[in-house]
Amino acid sequence: MGEASSSILVHGFSWLYGSSEGEIELQEIMNGLTNTQMYKSPEISIALIFIMVGTGFKLSPAPSHQWSPDVYEGVRFVR
Fold first, then answer.
1. pLDDT tens digits, residue range 47-65?
2. What residue segments make up the domains of the chain, in order of their start?
3. pLDDT per residue over 12-33, tens digit each?
């Protein structure tokens, strides 16, 4: 579960990086989102959805906080 949520989160950040024309500073990305029409592009929407889903899996917000300990307990570790 942790690897899947991390990969979703990284995928979202890679979409955000690609859509922001290679900018790596988050403050500059936010300035670009608020000051230009970049926020209307579908790529930004896809990136933000991936970031929110990946973060949601990591945080396990309500109501999934009830079943996530059972899921993590039942997962087999590959060695």
1. 889 999 888 888 877 666 6
2. 2-74
3. 988 888 877 777 888 887 787 7
Least Cα distance to 1 among 79, 68, 78 occurs for: 68
The answer to whether 20 and 30 have CB atoms below 8 angstroms apart is no
C-alpha separations of 42 from 24, 35, 46, 54, 73 in Å? 20, 17, 6, 18, 37
CA 7 to chain centre: 8
Structure tokens at 67: 């079943």
Instruction: Burial-class residue 72 by CB neighbours within 10 Å (0-12, 13-18, 19+).
Output: exposed
Instruction: Please indicate, yes or no, whether the overall pTM of this predicted structure exceeds 0.90.
Output: no
Q: Which amino acid is at 1?
A: M
Task: Give me the residue label for tokens 């997962």.
Answer: 75
